[in-house]
Sequence to fold (609 residues):
Amino acid sequence: MYFCAKDTYIMTIVTQIKLATEEAIKHIFPETDLESAVITINQTKPEFTGDYTIVLFPFVKLLKQKPDIIGKQIGGYLLDKTNLFSEFSIVSGFLNMGVRDEYWATFLLNHYNNTQYGVMPKGDKRVMVEYSSPNTNKPLHFGHLRNIFLGFAMAEVLKANGKQVIKGNLINDRGIHICKSMVAWMRYGNGATPEKNGQKGDHLVGDYYVKFNDIYKGEIAELKEKGMEEAQAEKEAPIMKEAQALLRQWEAGDKEVRSLWEMMNSWVYAGFDITYKRLGIDFDKMYYESNTYLLGKNIVEEGLQKGVLYKKEDGSVWVDLTEEGLDHKLLLRGDGTSVYITQDLGTAKLKYNDYKLDQSIYVIADEQNYHMQVLKQILKKLGEPCADGIYHLSYGMVELPTGKMKSREGTVVDADDMIDEMVSLAQQQTEQAGKTEGYTPQELTQLYETIGLGALKFYLLRVDPKKKMIFNPQESIDLHGFTATFIQYAHARICSILRKENLPLLPDNKHFQSFKLSLPISKAEKNLVLALEQYPFILEGAADEYNPSSLCNYSFLVAQLFNTFYDEHSIGKAENEEKKQLRLMMIVMTAMVLRNAMHLLGIRLPEKM
RNA sequence: GGCCCGGUAGCUCAGCUGGAUAGAGCACCAGCCUUCUAAGCUGGGGGUCAUUGGUUCGAAUCCAAUCCGGGUCACCA
Fold:
């Protein structure tokens, strides 16, 4: 019992210790009924001997014994009755358990090339992760990148945890914003197209959006000079009136307006696709607001019938959420037209019906926390089955040292520019390090992309999503320390050793079948295996807490432990064949775990750098 | 003002379902390449975990109040 079996379902060592401890207590103190929650297992601090520590204080009151006595009995029982441990010691209320070296050796033999290590078998839960969801009037900026990387990573992490995941993208392709770009293009474009201008379509359309706002500002200033109030001027500016007229024409289905709209949107999509492709980002389902913006009205009608919603004298429809600790919220204007949240109600239901979703995750910035809360509560109140599955994966916005990014004011860090900068930084550093030998030009290009994009993604994913970020464009993103580069480098070092040993990245099961452990495992070796064993726990946590950043922290730790191990021990020229085999298994598994973890974040690891 | 989120080393952040002397990275200082990739390793300095009180054998972690920063409370999206 209590030995890791070769199986897809892995019981972590911590779980095994917990169960064994529970059993020990039940056996030694049959009178007590013990809640397993009071058993806390921690990794033993480096200054003490042992691998995992059982905290004894919680038992003191329960068992009415001194911690040392309890510890001695539990420790003794665990040593005798399981084959997990080789030793134990008690230091001031902490029971430090030393796990047998054979456990780690068996663990390595069983999992060193198990590419599914930590991955849960696919279940039947369906989850949609909606992310990116851009407007079609401007190119993507740095803030979108955080959203996109987070959404992609979350989707992949959930897949690895056995969920059936649909990656969704709800494109905001209609409304006043796109009409603004259209007006400016009609006025000042002279028939400009991405082809003619040699410009990415999203950038071209974005330029006209900025142009619109420049002109708009000018017109407001002019009107104010003539003595008009600011608020009035904002409404009366001719270019704004044109944009609004255009929106009305669009809604009326005007053919010319629609075809201009389609053309300009198609430019934007082509531009987005280039960026998504370069970033390795994909989607399973695109939703367009031009198709969904009228949804939701019938849900509101039903709600009215049921008496869940109420109508005011002017004909507007409202929901009372004061019982839920929220406010009254408008759902339909007096003229019967819908507001933003109305279509969100409809879209939530649409998604649910399209895929029979168990859960629907929205990756949206934290400025919409209230909105998302309201959305969920309304659906709940209306008795819509999609309500319970709604989860807002809220993340802090990316700001500049000077404050928020404003696309209207052109103070945004453009996503494509940022990508280019990171890739060229990767090139500079590679050249500086003199590591450009032995590649074809294509391979070098590929390598710079891998390093540059890796650094960018890692930078945006390594922080807890809910924390806001301040990005200083003056200071470029580092390629040392807590970075993707560090992890990539550890991986490349491992691959280099494997090449020298004529081993593939994943040697098959025959390679180490003659391995037998007879020598003690060193501290540096142990630290690394211990960390590798924890991967399933980390992966599960990333899903449960909706926080992929834990994979960054974990991978960095593993790479760090590998580097220390690598510095201390020779692998190719190990002391003897046994050590060599042990260490080869360790590095094979290290590289595999790093690859798997980073793969979930969309970060590639080169075999050479 | 109501509600929500954040405040940990000079800077960027882990740790937060309570457990041993609070950890990384950057920056700074001192070492380590005739040996598997030095994009690395080892060591050092640097802290009133915003403040105060409470719960507890034990609090950065839980509770309350206060201070600071941000978000939100639109017939905008």
In short: Residues 1-8 of chain A have pLDDT under 50 and may be disordered.
